[in-house]
Amino acid sequence: MNIKILWFLIIVLNTFSSKASELIFKSRVATALNTVTLYTDSSYFKHSDIRFSEGELFEVLGETTLHHLDDAQNQKFKWFKIRSFSGQEGWIFGDGIAVIMESSDVNTKLKPFFKKRISLNNGFEKSVSWIASIGGFDNLYNSDLLSPTYHEFYIVITNEHGKSVHMNYESQSILGREFLNLFQMKDVTNDGIEDFLMETRSYSNLSDLENRTLEIFSLQSGHLKKILNERMTLNYGDDLFSPAMFKFVEVSAMSIRIEYVDYIPCTKFSLPYQFDKKSETQERCLEFVTYTYAWNNRKKKFVQFYQKNQNALKGIVYNPKIFLKSEPSFLSKKIENLKPNVPFTVIKHFEKVFIQNGEKKISPYLYVQSVNGNRGYIRGKVVHFLNTEHSKILFDFYQKPPLSKAKLKTNKLFLKIIREENISGGSSNQ
Questions:
Q1: d(CA 92, CA 430)
Q2: Which of 61, 207, 296, 354 could serve as a FRET partner for 370 with CA atoms 20 to 30 Å apart?
Q3: What average pLDDT does this structure show over 201-221?
Q4: Closest-CA residue to 292 (of 281, 276, 306, 271)
Q5: CA angle at 238 for the pair 233 and 242, rounded to the nearest 5°
């Protein structure tokens, strides 16, 4: 190779390298979400062998006014004119790159991470975090004004050499929607380098069920690796919320504790308590479930530390006039007067359906076992649950149960991040 050309390439690479992270602050940039192809114009008509790998940083020089059809996906995106790390200029189709967002459009929860200098490891000691997006249409109609919008949103980390990694935190398409609940940086692997915690909620267009997920990412060997993926949503039945709604997750360094109250078909009940069977659809047996993930340094991920621990849920009553009944009915036989503040075992949930003033309503009962060993039914609304993070949400549910569980709502936070010495970006107790 001609020595002058070699020196020119070295100068170009060094200049871009030293300014890669600086470019984010002063220019419009984009990152490759996968392997992308560079074309000479904004079309596929001319073949090209020029490809860039996932994580490549580009400077955006322009874009087409109109969206263009991608026949393979039946979606429309713009073409973007870019300049690459090596100085090459050309056009890349918009389904493969995420472009930096305007500050005013960035999610409020991510403002602290927009154009922020951060220090990680594995070649990302000097990096910048920023927020990027893809925008287009699902091509259902001839007019873009009628077609549903398609969006993907990313948190991007770029090092000083122009290498980027990314995390998808929100999306919207004809299939459904995903939203960000929480994003934080915290050293959960105890290696002195912060990891990325992200809680999202998603909805299918075919269901009202909120699917909530906790994901934790760690930078390993220059790549982001997902070291935990925990679905938090609890189901009562197909596409129906459990009254407990979500798992409670407590995150601390090196360990993650999970607990929840499980409403399961009684055919799957694992605890040694007898119960009378009344209905396949109106009853569920209850189990209090806990388990813990521990950081495995050899596998470089969180692994379940022990098998799920399933116990009985405990409850008490405060009113001294509460009786166990032989059936879920006011008129049924009294079995025992429950003493206030004396814990009993909760075995089963049963929903009695009735009509009042022409309106269908639900009156939930709980089948319990007293400290004396007697079993029977009591109204769910009189029970105060013990020793679980779900106590209040269950109490609230039994006070006024909705006819449809799809309408269950709560302001309770189910993710708690223990405050320690190495945390940034918002409140630690969520």
A1: 40
A2: 354
A3: 91
A4: 306
A5: 45
Mean pLDDT of 217-226: 93
CA dihedral 61, 67, 72, 73 (to 10 degrees): 100
Beta strands in 221-254 (DSSP E): 223-231, 233-237, 240-246, 248-252
pLDDT in tens, 43-61: 888 889 999 999 999 999 9
Pair 80, 90: CB distance under 8 Å = no
User: In whole angstroms, what is the distance from residue 42 CA to residue 65 CA?
Assistant: 11
The structure tokens 């649950």 sit at 385
Residue that is written with structure tokens 């929480």 in the block: 182
Residue 324 · residue 335 · CB < 8 Å: yes
**Highest-scoring range by mean pLDDT, 173-177, 412-416, 417-421:** 412-416
Which residues are 84's β-sheet partners?
none
| Coil, strand or helix at 399 | helix
Of residues 268, 276, 290, the one with CA closest to residue 387: 290
Positive or negative: CA dihedral 169, 172, 173, 175: positive
Phi–psi pair at 420, nearest 5 degrees: -135, -165
Residue with token string 């390298």? 17
CA distance 29 to 16: 13
- pLDDT confidence bin for 7, thresholds 50/70/90: very low
In this structure, the number of other CB atoms found within 10 A of the CB of residue 228 comes to 20
β partners of residue 420: none
The strand pair at 248-252 and 255-264 is best described as: antiparallel
Cα 406 to Cα 208: distance, rounded to the nearest angstrom = 6
Residue 63 and residue 78 in contact, taking contact as beta carbons nearer than 8 Å: yes
Report how far apart the first and last C-alpha atoms of the chain are (Å, whole number): 58
Give residue-wise pLDDT tens across range 94-134: 999 999 999 999 999 999 999 999 999 989 999 999 999 99
- Please report how many Cα atoms fall inside a 13 Å half-sphere around the Cα of residue 290, on the Cβ side: 10
CA-CA distance, 357 to 361, in Å (whole number)?
A: 10
Phi, psi dihedral angles at 243 (to 5 degrees): -55, -25
Note whether 155 and 131 are within 8 A (CB): yes
Q: Are 82 and 92 in contact (CB under 8 A)?
A: yes
Reported pTM = 0.87
3-state helix, strand, coil in the chain (%, to 5): 10, 50, 40
Are the C-beta atoms of residues 120 and 151 closer than 8 Å to each other? no
